Amino acid sequence: MENVTEERVSLYKEIEPLTDKPNGPVLVRNRETKEFFVKKYYPLFLKENLLTLQELDHTHLPKIQEVLVEDGKLFLYEEFIHGKTLTQIIQRSEMIEIETLLKMTLELLDALIALHSKGIIHRDVKPGNIMLTNDGLLKLIDFDAVRTFDGGKETDTVQLGTIGFASPEQFGFAESDRRSDLYSVGVVMNVCATKKYPKEQLSTNKFLRPLILKATKLDPNDRYQSALEMKWEVEEQWKKLKFNYQSEEKETKKASQEDRIREILEKNAANKEQQQNISQKVVKTYPSSILRKYVPGFRTDIVWKKVIAVIYYVFIGLGLPLDIMRNGSSNGRSGLVVEDLLYFVLPVFLFTNFMDFHSKLPLLKSKKRIVRIFGYILLGLFWLALCSLLRGEQRVP
């Protein structure tokens, strides 16, 4: 039997401790399956309880892979949970929404229903022992304080639990039972809602307050008598919360209908005024839109570009006709027209992106600046080639 245990233990390679505490949890990896697990040390007297827990396969409880005794010490290997404790979430958030809190409470109670069905009491339900996985599932972890309910004792043999969350009977007043876990659930709910214990500040939320009050009664007989009973009450409060949300939505819709009617009337009045002035606006904006769309230099609102464009167009409008008229022959004039258009007019259309033709050229429409620069260089070479070709033709006798 010892050889079998040693063989099983050797299957797990220790990776790193998860806390600084002596005998704290250690991250391990199965050498065969490559799965990660958490190795935890437990007192030897908890062996039977842990073996019972191993039989449970529940969504809101960690899956126990193995329970092994090594060198007289009890070790539990359970699934490695990726997520955060409720303590971490409470510390980092301003407030947990009531709907989310009720949903978490239902999942926590489902975990306790599974434990209690095996006669096991957790006895240390607190935010630090509640994890929310990266997938949004709640897991009740850590079984250091678990015990089976005896029913014939006046107090617990071993008094365990966390002060503030543990029920009064866990400190020697009576034997703890499943109602002790429900007391802790009530405290957890209040801490999530107010970040304080019920004795310091009780939640005033109308959906939480009655649940917390009943769960944290000093006398166990005045509390919920089972996790299932408390689950029913939480579900009822959740239904009331949903109904309240729906009622508020109806009121909001009803109140907004008048605002919508008012908006429609105001829009209709504005539309009439717009229709009266629409022709004037078209007349005013039409010449401007033509300039912005077709005439280089006026397609932006940059003043210096407009000034240069005006000077250039005056030069073209006056200079070119005078230059052409100075040439006496008709053949000379036609050649001069072509030459002037090529030298002075064509560059404007080529380099100012007339009619947005650059968006149709592969290099010039590129988002990379260096590619566009290369495209402009090729465009310039094309223009220079045309100029050279024209001069060559003029030199031929």
TrEMBL record:
SMART domains: S_TKc. Its EC number is 2.7.11.1. Keywords: ATP-binding, Coiled coil, Kinase, Membrane, Nucleotide-binding, Transferase, Transmembrane, Transmembrane helix. It is an enzyme of class 2 (transferase). The chain crosses the membrane at residues 302-321, 341-358, 370-391. It comes from the Bacteria. Residues 1-291 form the Protein kinase domain. Residues 247-275 form a coiled coil. InterPro entries: Kinase-like_dom_sf (IPR011009), Prot_kinase_dom (IPR000719), Ser/Thr_kinase_AS (IPR008271). One of its GO terms (molecular function) is kinase activity. This is non-specific serine/threonine protein kinase.
